[in-house]
Structures are given as structure tokens and as C-alpha cells.
Amino acid sequence: MISKMTKYSFILLSGDKEQFLEKLGELGLVDIVRSSKPVDERSAELLSRAERLRKAIDILEKTDGKASGAIASSTPMEDVYEAADALASAKANLDKAARDCERLLPWGEFQPDQIKDLERHGCKVRFYDVPKKQFKASWDVIVPLTVVSDDGSRVRFVTVSDSPEYEFPIEDIPAPEMNAAKAKEALELAESEVKVAQERLLGLKACLPALESAYKAALVKLDKYFAAATSEAAAEETLCVYTGFAPSEHDSQLKPAFEAMDDVFFISEEATAQDRPPISLKNNKFTRMFRVLTDMYGRPEYDGFDPTPYIAVFFMLFFAFCMGDCGYGLVLILLGLGLGKSKGMASFAPLVTTLGVATVVIGFLFHTFFSMDISGWEMFAPIKSVFLPSKIAGYDGTMVLALLVGVIHICLAIIVKTVYATKNHGFLGSLGTWGWTLLIVGGVIVGALSLGGVLDAAVTKWVIIVIGVLSALGIFFLNDLHRNPLINVGAGLWETYNTATGLLGDVLSYLRLYALGLAGAMLGFAFNDLGAKVLGDGAILNWVFFILIVLIGHVLNMAMAVLGAFVHPLRLNFLEFFKNSGYEGGARIYDPLKNTTETTIE
Q1: Distance CA 324, CA 415 (A)
Q2: Distance in angstroms (rounded) separating the CA atoms of residues 360 and 329
């Protein structure tokens, strides 16, 4: 998955750049580019306005809800700050009123004036709030008391006494400043003030497009001002302008760190594809092993998709298919475990081991062990049914399986292309892609269901007609809603020609999986047969030559098999899958600045 990136623009005096870069290196999260620009009073004014506009936009974007009516304003930015301050103040008052209400509700509807009247007559009213376990009913003997509330955890009570020598086992609390009714009124008033402030801020959301336009205009004006500045001004004092990118998941860590930096002005915004940010891929432990293959072709564009999960599954499957020998898979597992102890190659050890495990599984299904057919071995007789049959529908089973995997691989590529075309261009903007997906993927599914006996001939006929009609509409007439219909038809015919001639070739390309596996098996069998003939009657010298022939033969065969099993599955992913999925690589790899000699690639 492609990590969402945040774009940071930093501006600071040139004299502070070394310290700034040192701090960025300590954070180790920002991929940075740099340039120098002149600074003066005018540029500082433009920067300040851009920052205030950006903050006003952030305030409105973070304001949830829908206003009952829009508020027109000739000075929306200042109104946003004023409304935000009013809302913050109202929320603070609401928090205080809520706490007061929670504290005062248990004391009920007493009248403060009556308490003051008692005190004028020499009677002191004292208030107590104690845990229920601490409360003792015998305290009534000391001085008359009245329990006001008992919620099961705390007991609140009052005493009334005119004795100047009043004593009680526990300390009293200050008298409540108002009764429950007044507290509720204060809470309702605070809630209404918050609602009014929220309505005002929500009403200003109508000004959001104007603020965004003003913000972009401010940045353009700043860029033009920098571009027009003279070299003499730049010679006296310069600004270092840095543009950096970091995964958005680190915003909560980076923004406070940047705000704490003295004399550094920064603006943060969500990166877009037009910014061409570096690409950071977020993969799990399994797919991360195959990221090196993605990087061989090139990282995806920011608005594209991460092909690593698809490469991980299908490259591993194709590699094992080409090797096709569980004996060779065991050797790869041992090789991977050995590489894990090597400092220089340790990073490749998990990948080699994983490919070895996949080769063991596929090789076992192909019932091949060092080019020997194990389907006839007595020890495997109980599980013989799991082995791939030698014939499927009268054709070689391995060949049929290779073509079937190829069809699935291409169909998945077409589905991925459709999903991301819809995401980037909308459903109406990708009707042509949907037409091809319905025709190819839908046709494959219907064909499979028909061959499996799920659909009878009559139903299959009508389903194919419906798919054909809908696909034709998308391919020939709706492939571009903003284009002349005749041009759409012409473009559809040209694309039909290219697809019809290319798709068959793409599917047949997967026969290389069958051919490579067959070639390796036949060559290994030849070495086994040659070794068996040399062994003859089993003399000691014959055994020596037998071991040498079989060992050297299988080492050479495995070396060639590994080379073919790496190159050709890579080709099937880079050409057939990438072409049919519309994948485009070549983006820059995310490589954050670090205060170490090590480079972290994500």
C-alpha cells in the first residue's frame, strides 16, 4: 500500500540551515529537497499571510457538521479566527458548567437565601460529602444531620447547629454556591453558547473555497516574488527554502517538533500527485521481502497502486512452477538458512527460504523429487490423490494449469486497472475500462460456470448476449463522454484490435512456466539416467562416478533452473501483469534524511 504523504515547506535564514538539517536528521523521517531564496520585509509579510490562511483553512476543515445557513463575509479569514476563539471560549465555559452541574446536582433544590437567613439567626449550616463506607448513622447523636443524597458510593448530608463549640469527626466542605436548578440553567446557557458559536463557524465553511483560492494565490505570489528578487538582495541575506515529504502517519510527531524549532517557518499540507512526492510502501512482513522486485521496475506513481502484494503471490507461485521439484526446494531452504548467517546476504535469506518452501509445495504437487517421479512410491500411496493428474481434459496437466494461472493473473490485472481507474477518474470517466473488464473477466467467469455445469446452454447464451451488449456500449460509445461519438467508435475499434491480438499472446506467454519446468525435469532425468547406467553393477568406483555425475548434473540443472525461474516470472509480472493493469513506475523512493551513514528505504 502506498503511504499517504504530507508535504512540508520550510523557510529559514541561511545561517540556521546547518542546525535545521541536524534536527531533521535526528527526526529521520523527512525526505528533503532544498533551494535558497532572498528574504526581506515583503517576503515575511507574504509568508505570514499564507500561514494565517492555511490555519484558517485547517480550522474550517476540522469543523464537523452542516450549517443551517451560510454566513457571507468580506473578511472570512479574520472572521474564522474570531469564531474559532469564541467557540473555544464557549467550550471552556461548557466544561466548567458541566463540572459544576455534576458537583451540585446531588445537593438538590435548596434555597441559598434560606441558608443565609439561618446564619443571621445564629444557626450555622455545614455541608459534608463522604464515602458511604465512612458515613456513620451514629453521627446524628453528636449533632442533628440530614442526608441530602446517597448514590451508593457517596453520602452527602448537612448539619445545623447554633453551638459556638461545634465539633464533628470530619471536615466540612464549602457550601454550594447555587442549587441544582441554577446549575442546570447555567449548563443549558453554556450549551446554547457553544451551539451558537458552532453555527457561526459552520456558516463560515461556505468561505472555504475562497480561503483555499486565497491561500494558493498567496503561495503563487510568494513564488513570483522570490523568482523576481535581485541577486544583490540575496547576497546580503538569504532564506533557505526546503520542501520535504514524510508519511502522514508521523504528523503528530513531526508538527510539534517543527513548531518547537526557533526561527523556522513551516507550512504543511496533504501531498498530491502533482507534487510528485517520494513513494513509501507500507507492506507486511511477507510482502516486504518482494519489494526489491518492485524497485527493479520502479516505484508506483502517488495516485497509482502498490504492485508488491500481487508480485509477492504470483512471483512466488511462478518461481515454484518453473522449478517444479521439491528436492530443489529443500536445497533452496538450506541455502536460505545459510544466507541468514552471512552478513552481506542476510537480507535475502528470508526471500530465498520462502521461495524454497513454495518450490517444495509445488514440487510435491507435481510429484517430482530431484527429477524422480514419486507418485509411484509406496510411502505416498495414501495421499496420491493430492498429486496433479498427468492429464486434464486430454491435455498435459501442467500445461493446463499454467494457462489457467495465466488467465487468473491477467483477469486480476484487469480488475486492478478498473478499480484504480474508477478511483482516479470516477465511474463515468472509466466506462471504457469497465466495458473491457465486463467482457474479459465476465466472459471467463461465465465460461467457467458453463464448463462446470452450473449454467445450462440457454442461460449461458443470454448471459453472454447481455455481457456483449453492455461491454460494447462501454468500449465503443461511452469510452470518453466528452468526445465525439464517432471518435469513440474509432478508438474502440483500434483498442479492440490491439486487445484481441495482444491478449492471446499474453495468455500463451504463461506456457513458459510449463516449458521451463518440463525442461528442468527432463534434464534432471537425463542426469539420473546417465548416473544409473554408469552405476552398473554397483562397484565402488562406479558409485564414485555415479555420485559425481548426479551431483554435478543436478547442481548445473538447478543453477539454470533458478536463473530461468527468476527471469521469466519477473517478465510475466513486469510485462503481462503491469501492461494489463495499467501500472506505471518510475517514482522516487522515499529516503528520509538521517544523521547516520545508513540509508533507510521504505
Answers
A1: 29
A2: 5
Look at residue 161 and tell me if it is in a domain.
Answer: yes
In a domain? residue 547: no
Provide the domain count of the chain: 1
Confidence check: pLDDT of 523 > 80? yes
User: What residue numbers bound the domain in which 137 lies?
Assistant: 111-175
Are 38 and 239 spatial neighbours (Cβ–Cβ below 8 Å)?
yes
What distance in Å separates the CA atoms of residue 556 and residue 24, rounded to the nearest whole number?
A: 51
Angle at 388 between CA 382 and CA 389, to 5 degrees: 95
User: Tens digit of pLDDT for each residue in 268-296?
Assistant: 889 888 888 999 998 889 999 999 898 88
CB 222 within 8 A of CB 43: yes
316 falls within a domain: no
Each residue's pLDDT tens digit, 121-151: 888 889 999 999 999 988 888 888 989 999 8
> b/e string for 304-324 if b means 16 or more Cβ within 10 A?
bbbbbbbbbbbbbbbbbbbbb
pTM of the model: 0.63
At residue 258, φ and ψ (nearest 5 deg) are -70, -35
In a domain, 151, yes or no: yes
Has residue 34 got a pLDDT over 60? no
Angle at 549 between CA 548 and CA 550, to 5 degrees: 95
- List the grid coordinates of 155: 453520602
